[in-house]
Amino acid sequence: MVIETDLALPDGRSLHVYDTGGSAQLTVFWHHGTPNLGAPPGPLLPLAESLGVRWVSYDRPGYGRSTHLADRTVGDAAGCVAAVADALGIGDFAVMGHSG
Q1: What is the dihedral of CA 24, 29, 30, 34, to 10 degrees?
Q2: What are the pLDDT digits (tens) for 10-57?
Q3: For 82, phi and psi rounded to 5 degrees?
Q4: Listed residue (57, 63, 47) closest to 19, CA to CA
Q5: Which domains does the chain have, with CATH numbers?
Q6: CA-CA distance, 60 to 73, in Å (whole number)?
Q7: How confident is the model at residue 3 (pLDDT cuts 50, 70, 90)?
């Protein structure tokens, strides 16, 4: 099951966050490519759950329900991930993604 929430950022924007939750041995931040949204890859979720993998992701700024960020760069993803990780209390994680 994927829990969706909106995370309010200090600058007034928001990120739409996806989280499979639970206690996991490994958390993976999923980065979506264009033109997709941030929902984690559904076909991988059952196996991930059985292996103790938690998926966390977000709609990139300007996609889906996340607020637009003018002049956004690829490097801005680091700040987005840090905000989500901090809000969810995640200290260590891996990253995975794909490009359109």
Answers
A1: 160
A2: 999 999 999 998 778 999 999 998 889 999 999 999 999 999 999 999
A3: -60, -40
A4: 57
A5: 3-97 (3.40.50.1820)
A6: 11
A7: very high
3-state secondary structure of 78: helix
Label residue 99 exposed, middle or buried (CB < 10 Å: 0-12, 13-18, 19+). Answer: exposed
* H/E stretch holding 85: helix 77-88
- Which helix (DSSP H) or strand (DSSP E) does residue 15 occupy? strand 14-19
Q: Which residues lie below 8 Å from residue 38, measured CB to CB, with a gap of 6+?
A: 16, 17, 18, 30, 32, 57, 58, 59, 60, 63, 64, 66
